[in-house]
Design brief:
The chain has 434 residues and is an alpha/beta fold. It contains 14 helices and 16 strands. The protein is globular, with a radius of gyration of 21 Å. It binds zinc ion. The site of zinc ion has 6 residues, from strand 5.
Length: 434
């Protein structure tokens, strides 16, 4: 629909630079692209465009969650232990249920609906080992309109029998899903090869994944160096490799289209290998704290030049909300200063957290030409946020500064302030009609 939205516009330009128009006008074409962002009223130029005056409501790009697990939504908040025990005790028994097409379909529909309700318009998602469940997840993402990177989890060792599949079958199943879904709907759906982590993957399967990634030029996502116990187990399972990263490197799965989650316990050599291969990092601060795994040295990796986005890692993370993820990212970046007194790592700012949750995520997924910020030519994937709901004292001065608006929505906001979600210029979700 051709439309003009008038409101408070806030969008990232870089890690420390914002576009702030108050009021501003966002002009959308009927093809769902952004035509213009302007301070001056463009209604004389775009004469037949529908006009929406949102008063002071906030228009910002939809959030990008670059790491989460579709199957684990019901497990949110359930853990009193660490990663490996949590996987065996809670996650694996639950993922076995996805053999049922009915459960897989319902779960996928619920998952994408909840993501959109939280203002997330792009997601990179692990399903389960089941091919059918993955196919249904794509189907559901397609129907919801969300931009989604989706992959069938691959595991052929160290997991319960019902989740342990034949190596060749998994490679063939993944290839079938790539051919069916990668690039679907103008590239809004992409296939991601998804080995869970090296613990549950044989080296021959990882090598096969590397070959598939190159053959089809598709993405790869996995976990790396999330907890100390996991790193210890990796050393036992892969004694002939120099490090955890070395396994992925030698299997040929590290590239600019690879996104590794967590990256907490890496030595300097590993960091260099990841940097050289152009591997992207998914920072999952909520999950890292919730499963007592550790704190990723964000500033150190950022200063080395890594492209980093944020992942809720549900249900290692206890919330699908990117407001929460931004808050945790800032707070844990402060904590690393306390515990690492030798080097001062500048804590993350609110602008930086907002960048990671939007444009940074888009860069990590190499889709910054398509989404991640409100910019001419990009897809009109945006949110209308009622930030005034957070202003109990009706103090208008506070909101004249974009930094304050960000601070308020990050620290006090949640899905209840996301009033409307637009994908390709089309209203997909309206809190008033739920
Ligand atoms: Zn994860």
């Amino acid at each position: 629909m051709n439309a003009i939205f008038k409101g408070t516009i806030l969008s990232p330009i870089s890690k420390n630079k914002l576009l702030f128009l108050k009021p501003g006008y966002l002009v959308i074409s009927n093809k769902g692209k952004i035509l213009e962002l302007t301070r001056s009223n463009p209604r004389n130029i775009y004469k037949n465009f529908q006009f929406y005056n949102l008063s002071e409501k906030l228009l910002c790009p939809g959030f990008i969650d670059i790491h989460n697990h579709l199957s684990q939504l019901p497990l949110i908040g359930l853990s009193d232990t660490n990663l490996l025990i949590w996987l065996n005790k809670l996650v694996f028994p639950h993922e076995e249920k996805f053999k049922s097409g009915e459960i897989a379909k319902q779960s996928a529909e619920m998952f994408f609906h909840h993501l959109l309700k939280n203002g997330t318009t792009t997601t990179s998602t692990f399903v389960t080992v089941h091919k059918q469940a993955t196919d249904l997840a794509f189907q559901s993402a397609k129907e919801s309109g969300i931009r989604a990177f989706i992959g069938k989890v691959m595991m052929d060792q160290q997991v319960p029998m019902n989740l342990c599949e034949d190596t060749q079958k998994q490679l063939l199943d993944s290839e079938g899903l790539i051919e069916k879904w990668d690039g679907y709907d103008e590239g809004r759906l992409r296939y991601v090869l998804t080995p869970r982590f090296a613990v549950s993957c044989s080296f021959s399967m990882l090598k096969g994944i590397g070959k598939l990634a190159r053959k089809y030029n598709v993405y790869v996502q996995s976990h790396l160096a999330e907890s100390r116990a996991e790193v210890k187990l990796i050393k036992e399972l892969y004694p002939d490799f120099g490090s955890y990263t070395d396994i992925y490197y030698k299997a040929g799965i590290l590239s600019q289209k690879t996104i590794m989650a967590h990256c907490i316990y890496l030595n300097e050599k590993e960091i260099e290998v990841l940097r050289k291969t152009g591997t992207k990092i998914s920072h999952c601060p909520t999950a890292n704290r919730f499963l007592a795994s550790g704190i990723m040295p964000y500033r150190k990796l950022e200063e080395k030049g890594f492209t980093i986005g944020l992942g809720t890692d549900v249900a290692g993370g206890y919330s699908l909300s990117m407001f929460n993820e931004m808050k945790e990212a800032i707070e844990t970046s402060k904590m690393i200063n306390f515990i690492n007194s030798k080097k001062h790592y500048k804590p993350m700012t609110v602008e930086e957290a907002f960048y990671l949750a939007t444009l940074g995520g888009a860069k990590a997924l190499s889709i910054e030409q398509e989404t991640g910020s409100l910019e001419k030519g990009k897809s009109a994937d945006f949110l209308i946020i009622n930030y005034k709901k957070l202003d109990d004292y009706k103090d208008n001065d506070i909101f004249s500064d974009p930094k304050n608006i960000l601070a308020k929505i990050i620290y006090c906001g949640n899905k209840n302030i996301v009033e409307k979600v637009y994908l390709r210029g089309k209203k997909i979700l309206d809190i008033n009609n739920l």
